[in-house]
Amino acid sequence: MSFLQPLLSGILTGGVYALAGIGMSLVFGVMNISNFAHGDLMMLGMYLAYFAFTLLHIDPYLSLVLILPTAFLFGYLLERLFINRVINHPHQNQILLTIGLGLIMSNTALLAFTSDPKILTTSYSSSAFNLPGGISISAPLLFSFLITCVIIAILYIFLSKSTTGMALRATSQNREAAQLMGINVAKMSAIAFGLGTALAATAGALIAPTYYIHPLAGHSFLLKAFTICVLGGLGSVVGAGVGGIIIGVVEAMSATYLSSDWKDVVVFVLFLAVLLLRPQGLFGKKGGQS
Amino acid sequence: MKQITLLTILAAAAIALPLVIGENPYITGILISVLMMAALSSAWNILGGYAGQYSFGHAAYFGAGAYTTLILLTNYPTLNPLICMAVGIIAASIIALITGAIVFRLRGHYFGLASIAVAEIVRLSVLNFDFTGGAQGILLSDVSLWGLDLNSKNPFYYAMLLVLAVTLGITAYLRTSKTGYYLQAIREDQDAASSLGINLSFYKNKSLLLSAALTSVLGSLYGLYIRFIDTSAVLDLRLSIEIILTAIIGGVGTLWGPVVGALLLVPLAEMLRSNLLGDALVKAGLVSETSALGIFLKENLAHAHVLVYGIITVLCILYLPKGILGLFRRTK
């Protein structure tokens, strides 16, 4: 097997990871909160896609039209009801609150959907495109990657051109100064959390056709999303995008050349290596680790 | 003086308790769990409560003790369990030192994140290696602990009580010692502490090592007590979170907070797990056994204890962030 095969599938999976990482990074940048419920929000996205497919017979990619606004609203409400009450608390309280919310989500899912893993099988689930050189690309992975690219492009334009986007970035750069300039930072926090949730759920829906859907699936994605954020620099959206691709490739390479049992270990070792060698991440500003 | 009298009465009651309830393995089992969680949470409290460094990966140190002890005893059945505990402490210390070396230079979110990453690396490695029993875990079939009667749970009750007493003693000592003041200064304001000449990294590592060593001893004891371990029992993230939650509910950074938290949470979890709560609701006539709700509760309440933990965590952070003991302190 050629070296290009894991590289290519790593990039494609990494794109979806990037989406989850960007969501987390956005929340971190604007609110300075580590969201430990992020993985569970991804899990909810997976189930939304699954039920949209099995109950309403909507294609998982088309169902994004429903999932995106639903998840945004859900995240917006979560922020308004819970998260904003700890925004000035110590980090550990914020972390524990999001852990608690995550436990509620995953264990409610466990009660409601049981622990049997679900599989979302579409007509194209196992189809693949064959490229010269014996490389094949899984169709759902490719579709997911392309949709991810479109969403990231829209998000980029939104953040750089729209008034709300600029206000979000201003809040991220300096919360107090943004408030002094008349930006409603409380509203920006709710929007950021809504966007973060929408991106997490979208990432979940996009990988639903290629993964087991399980109430506790969020756990491993949470740690991946953190690794991506730290690798790219906490709060850096561009960094999270690049970080996602790197993690996807590292994972695919270690699964191919080492063993799939150890691929998560490799990702976490990489995480510690980044903390040791470049704690500000690839795109973070130096000294930004406080 | 009043305090010493109170403490003596408490200690006497704890020592006499197994004699009063007699040979009841079920009750003794719950009491051992309470003592263990109280001790685990107190050990965590030294680092999280006093130094302000929230570790989300204490399961790694617990697992290090449990796995080291059981691996050694399955290979060398005649080995003194105390030696196994000592080796477990060394294993836990190595993990702690690696974590500390990487993250104590950094601040804020990083220690929490890195402690999870280290714990996950340990968990996945144990799961993937052969000598650790992998996903099957380790069963210790035959062990003689100085000829103690292992059918009785009482020896483990006293062992856990002893470790809890030692941990509380260390915490009480720390509160008024130089190291303790340094740790609290670091918790309140790192920059101020550093500018006063406190070696941040040294004191953070010191409290981490102390906390990890105590946690590892408890892991060893747990391994000897249950004599079967696997990664989901001793290395799971859920265990780390339960340890923190116990401290939070009782009161982080207080001497008795972890004990109060354990006294509340462990029996609650046990009531949910054994369906006592569901049965009680039925018996009280609140829910009919044959109704849809009754059947649902009977089938699911036993699995819901993590869900209840989640709800308690959220409520506690929002309404009681200083814990139950913090509540009393404020009214003083």
Structural descriptors:
heterodimer; A: 290 residues; mainly alpha; ABC transporter involved in vitamin B12 uptake, BtuC; two-stranded antiparallel ribbon; globular; disordered C terminus; B: 332 residues; 16 helices; 2 strands
Structural account:
The complex is a heterodimer of chains A (about 290) and B (about 325). Chain A has one domain (about 5-120, about 135-275): ABC transporter involved in vitamin B12 uptake, BtuC (Orthogonal Bundle), CATH 1.10.3470. Chain A contains 11 helices and 2 strands; from the N terminus they run ααααββααααααα. Chain A has helices spanning about 5-30, 40-55, 65-80, 90-115, 140-160, 165-175, 175-180, 185-205, 220-230, 235-255, 265-275, and strands at about 130, 135-140. Chain A has a two-stranded antiparallel sheet with strand order 1-2. With about 325 residues, chain B is mostly helical. Chain B has a single domain (about 25-330), classed as Orthogonal Bundle (ABC transporter involved in vitamin B12 uptake, BtuC). In chain B, helix 3 (about 60-75) runs antiparallel to helix 4. Chain B is globular and about 65 Å long. The model of chain B has no long low-confidence stretch (mean pLDDT about 85). The interface of A and B includes residues 34, 86, 103, 261 and 265 of A.
